[in-house]
């Protein structure tokens, strides 16, 4: 078995941010909890900032990683699923959309182990021809999926997972406590995808998978924010097994 750590490519946000004495400049950003989660699972994180050349040729970077993670963040441009922009749909970043859609499409074609977190799950659904609810409070009449903006504290809720499904195997059970922070979610499900996890509170789709793939999982919650979560470990373990098969 190979002793090297699996390399997990993780797409970054592209935002205007300030740090130190530098104010209001464009930055490739990623919450460090993603990095720590990958490292705890025994992987090596490789941050992937938006790159227009990789939009044209994703293989240039996918050749160098053993798995892919799409992280949470800004809203997906609703033009990608044929809708007008809702007033609550904000912070659109076309360069990030273009990059992540290209990476994900090619990763699926290559059957690369892939985990799509929060926004990432929405990207997966839209890529497959699905649509999104642009502002959950208008449909659910509550904001329990993002009770406290800017923190995961107090934003926990349970998700019921289909027995034997990929998320149930990854989470280690059929009921999992999750930390969420989202105001959008799946509406029409994309082609080939299956909903395998729903909120116990309101039946909202919270986990999807692509059964035709070896490991393509979307979760609406944030496993990286929960040190007890096994979801990232499941991804890294899948990548490690691929390395072992190739090296044997």
Give a brief rundown of this model.
The protein is 29% helix and 25% strand. The chain is α/β, with parallel strands linked by helices and 248 residues long. The protein has one domain (7-247): Rossmann fold, CATH 3.40.50.
Explain the overall architecture.
The radius of gyration is 17 Å and the shape is globular. The chain has a single domain (7-247), classed as Class I glutamine amidotransferase (GATase) domain (Rossmann fold), CATH 3.40.50. Helix 4 (94-109) links the parallel strand 5 and strand 6. The chain is 29% helix and 25% strand. It has a nine-stranded mixed sheet, sandwiched between helices. It has a two-stranded antiparallel sheet with strand order 2-3. Strands 7-10 form a two-stranded antiparallel sheet. With 248 residues, the chain is an alpha/beta fold. The chain contains eight helices and 13 strands. The longest helix has 17 residues, at 231-247. The model has no long low-confidence stretch (mean pLDDT 96).
């Amino acid at each position: 078995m190979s002793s090297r750590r699996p390399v997990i490519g993780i797409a970054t946000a592209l935002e205007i941010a300030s740090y130190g004495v530098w104010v209001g400049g464009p930055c490739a950003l990623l919450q460090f909890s993603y990095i720590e989660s990958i490292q705890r699972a025994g992987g090596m994180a490789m941050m992937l900032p938006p790159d227009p050349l990789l939009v044209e040729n994703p293989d240039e970077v996918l050749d160098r990683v053993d798995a892919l993670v799409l992280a949470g963040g800004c809203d997906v441009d609703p033009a990608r699923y044929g809708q007008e922009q809702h007033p609550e749909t904000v912070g659109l970043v076309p360069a990030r959309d273009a990059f992540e859609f290209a990476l994900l499409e090619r990763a699926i074609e290559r059957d690369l182990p892939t985990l799509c977190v929060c926004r990432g799950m929405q990207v997966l659904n839209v890529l497959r021809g699905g649509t999104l609810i642009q502002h959950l409070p208008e449909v659910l009449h509550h904001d329990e999926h993002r009770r406290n903006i800017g923190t995961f504290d107090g934003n926990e809720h349970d998700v019921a997972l289909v027995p034997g499904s990929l998320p149930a195997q990854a989470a280690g059970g059929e009921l999992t406590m999750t930390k969420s922070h989202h105001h959008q979610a799946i509406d029409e499900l994309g082609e080939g995808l299956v909903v395998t996890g729903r909120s116990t509170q309101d039946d909202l789709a919270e986990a999807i998978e692509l059964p035709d793939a070896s490991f393509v999982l979307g979760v609406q919650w944030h496993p990286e924010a929960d040190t007890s979560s096994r979801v990232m470990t499941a991804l890294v373990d899948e990548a490690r097994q691929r390395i072992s098969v190739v090296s044997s």
